[in-house]
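Thread: "does anyone have the structure for this chain?"

Original post by V.I.:
We have the sequence but no experimental structure in hand. Need at least a predicted one for the grant figures.
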Amino acid sequence: MIGKTLIEKAIIIQVNDGIALKEDMQELRAVWEETSYQLDRLQANPYCVERKERLILTEKALHIN
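Reply from O.Q.:
Generated one for you, tokens below.
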């Protein structure tokens, strides 16, 4: 097994018996999205980019059952 889903909204990476990373999923997502946001600001309508960014930050986490 290489992974499993959790109810907790966190990304947890274990190596052997220790936790190598445990971070809030939304915080990691914001870091991931920042690069795309900065590129979009250079290439697209600033109003549309700002609106898209606000929508991304307010989206609820995807739940898979």
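V.I.: this helps a lot. The chain has a mean pLDDT of 82.
O.Q.: and The longest strand covers residues 18-24.
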